[in-house]
Amino acid sequence: MNLYLGIDFGTTGARSTVIDSQGTIHCETEYTFANNGQQQPELPWVWEKALWDSIEQIPPAIRNQVRAIAIDGTSSTVMLCNTEGIPVCEPILYNDARGAAVTERLRAIAPDNHTVLSATSSLAKLLWLQEGGHGGTAPTVFLHQADWLGFLLHGKLGISDYHNALKLGFDVDTLCYPNWLIEGIAGAATPELPQVVAPGTPVGEVRAQVGDRFGFPRDCTVCAGTTDSIAAFLASGVNLPGEAVTSLGSTLAVKLLSHTRVDDSRYGIYSHKLGDFWLVGGASNTGGAVLRHFFTDAELENYSTQIDPEQESLLDYYPLLKKGDRFPINDPNLPPRLEPRPTDSVEFLHGLLESIARIEARGYQLLQELGATPLTKVYTAGGGAKNLVWSAIRKRYLKVPVVTPIHTAAAYGTALLAMRGVMGI
Q1: Chain Cα centroid distance, residue 388
Q2: pLDDT at site 172
Q3: pLDDT value at position 424?
Q4: Which residues of the chain have pLDDT under 70?
Q5: In this predicted structure, what is the pLDDT of residue 383?
Q6: Which residues pair with 97 in a beta bridge?
Q7: Given this model, what pLDDT does residue 188 score?
């Protein structure tokens, strides 16, 4: 039997799913990052340990039937490596807005209203690394999280996919880096940019030492990956324009399948190429991480049952853990709004859930105002999909059916990507 392995690197941990050609799940594993995956110099080694441990958890009898592997990572989580693939400085996480310091240079390089015009874009982070001389004088390679993790498996340094590379400035229409980007970053401290292929493209067989260690077949192929939110979209099985997936994890990400492409940096809106359609959307820093800051999982479950989802909360929050958002307001200095805080915890949670629902609804409203295919249905992925009260609140704002797909795990979507990559579908 041929099996396919998808590994998802999210905000707080890694998860893996192994499926067969019918999409049946044979194994799932989960690994929680040390220090909750927060910014730290040791982060690459935290990821590497998570990768090996996630694979180790898969039974040997399943590992030796894995024909293909793909990995997804958080969008715009980036790093600089030397030519041996060893990180030369700490990675910069997806929601890190230090790129705000190079806003003027970024605007001088990029076309008006381009996707990269955000303090958290991959290109903003690259310029910040350049200006700080963080790569030193030796040759370096600029990679995304999923690129580096894939390299650990196949050993070919500097391969990315056009989902991860979109916020670096890669042009998915011409399938190359535009001249404005190449010329704009040129200089003495310019790192090598990754070669970009379509997500799911077979890159190479697993390195011999990896195959020997874990018992993968000699011809087990590593495929180019994607981002975590697109992987969750793939898992949902959505294939009709007008249908969308909201990923309610640590953060909030919306993806709408559209006939038309929409890009607008004012609001943090961008489009990924997906077959003959466009995946239009954005990602906000609000979401589950804010809820978990104030409540335990048990409290969230208990208090949610005491909320009437048809009763509107009058508390108007913008729930963030620190200043700055990416979508639907693209402002690295946007302050959190979490006051007034009632003494009743149920009332406070109601206000938070309702406010996040408003942000989601505003996001979809913007997509349609700017020309995306009208919204007809929203599928929910991520941990927030389990909260039925929250789903009912969101349905009131979205005014379309809100449903949970059969498969919601990003790792499942990445396993599908691996399968389709080696099967050529």
Answers
A1: 24
A2: 93
A3: 83
A4: 36-39
A5: 84
A6: none
A7: 72
